[in-house]
Amino acid sequence: MFTLEHKLRDTKIITAEDIEILRGHIYSKNPELSESAKTKIISKAIIKVFDREYYWLEKSERLQARKTLLMALIEDGKDDVNYFDAVEAAYSIASHSEKESEFEKWLEEALDESYSFDSVCHIFSRKYKLKKIAVKYKYAVIGVLLTFIYLIYYFMPHFTSDFIVVKDVSMDSYIIAEDEFYREQLYLDYKQRYFPYKIYDYEHLKNYFKALESKLVEGENFKIIVDTARQYNLDPLLLFAIIGQEQSFVPSTTTYANQIINNPYNVFNSWEYYNTDLKDSTEIASHLLDRIISECPIDEDIFEWMNMTYAEDDRWSEGVRRIYYRLNQYVETY
Asked: What is the pLDDT of residues 306-332, one digit of tens each?
C-alpha cells in the first residue's frame, strides 16, 4: 500500500515546468493577444489534459472530476497535479457508477502495473478521510488548543512582576496587566477571521437587486449564494460584492445573462470558458476566497491581499471594497 501511494504521487499529470513551457509557447505564438486571452488559452489546454485522463467517465462525471483537479492547482499553492490527485477525484465516482473495472484499466495504463479497486479505496478510506476531517475542523481545533494553553498559563503560579511595561513609550499610558498582555499574545495569531459568515435581513438588498433587474434574485440564485457562504463561513456580502465588480450584479438585460449567471465570479478566468452552474462556481469562488483570507498577514490590507490572487487588475480591490461597504447599507445584522 505504501508503494502504491508513493507511485501515485510520483506519477505526474502536469507539472509547473509543463505549464511554463505551455505558457512560453502560447505567448510566442500569440503576442497580439491580451494577458487575459492568453491565460484563457493556457487554462483551456490544461483542462483538455484533465479531460483526456477521464475518457472513461460520463460527461457529467468527467466534469466533476476535472473540477477537483482544477481545485488541486489553486489549493495550497500547488504547482503540479499527480495521479494521487486524479485517483482521489475519481475513485468515489467510479464506485457510485459501478465503473470499478474501467477505473482499474485506467490505473494500469497510467502506472504500468495492475492494482485492484479495493487497494485504492483502502488508501482513502482511513488516512485521508481523517485528514479531511482535521482540515475541515482546523479552526475549531486551533481555538480549543489556544484556550487550553491560556487556561494552563492563567492558573499556574507566576513569580514575575504584576505588570509588563512596553518599552520606549510613556509608562503612565502603556502599563498593561500581565494576564491581559499574555491573553493578547496568545490570540494574536488566532485573530478574528476576515469576512466571517453573518446572518442578515436581506429584504432591502433584494429590493436593490430587483431595481437593477439582477438575475441574482431570480429563482434559487440568491439562496444558493447565501447557503454556500454559510458552508464556507464566508460573509455573503463579499460574494455579492465580487459579482458586482465582475459582472455588475448580472442585469437580466445583459447579453448572455443566462450564461453569465452560471459563473458571475469569472472563476477559472471567465464565464465564457468555465460555465457550469451558479452553485458550482460559488463553491469554487468560496473555496478560493477561504484559502486567500486565511493566509492574509495581519499587516496586509485584506482587499489588496485578495486582489493579488483573484484578479490581474490592480483596481479590482478598490471596486470590491467600495461595493462591499455599499451593500452593507442595505442589510441589517441579526
From this structure: 999 898 888 999 999 999 999 999 998
Paired residues of 12 in beta bridges: 82
d(CA 165, CA 114): 67
- For 279, residues 6+ apart whose C-beta sits below 8 A from its C-beta are 224, 228
Q: What are phi and psi of 333, to 5 degrees?
A: -85, 135
Give the Cα separation of 260 and 278 in Å (integer). 9
* Single-letter amino acid code for the residue at 234: L
d(CA 172, CA 29): 68
Beta pairing class for 200-201 and 332-333: antiparallel
Query: Across residues 59-86, what is the average pLDDT?
Result: 77
Alpha helices in the chain, H assignment, sequence order: 2-10, 16-29, 35-53, 59-74, 83-96, 100-111, 117-125, 127-136, 138-155, 178-186, 203-211, 221-231, 236-247, 257-260, 278-294, 302-310, 316-327
Q: What is the pLDDT of residue 90?
A: 86
What is the reported pTM?
A: 0.56
State residue 57 phi and psi, 5-degree precision: -95, 155
> For the chain, how far is it from start to end, CA to CA, in angstroms?
51
CA distance 38 to 240: 27
Element (H, E) at 175: strand 175-177
Q: Which pLDDT value is given to residue 173?
A: 38
Alpha-carbon distance of 126 to 23, in angstroms, equals 38
Which pLDDT belongs to residue 288?
Answer: 92
Residue 201's DSSP bridge partners are: 332
Tell me the HSE value of 325 on the side-chain side, using a 13 A CA sphere.
Answer: 6
| Residue 178 clears pLDDT 70, i.e. is over it | no
Residue 77 pLDDT > 70, yes or no?
no
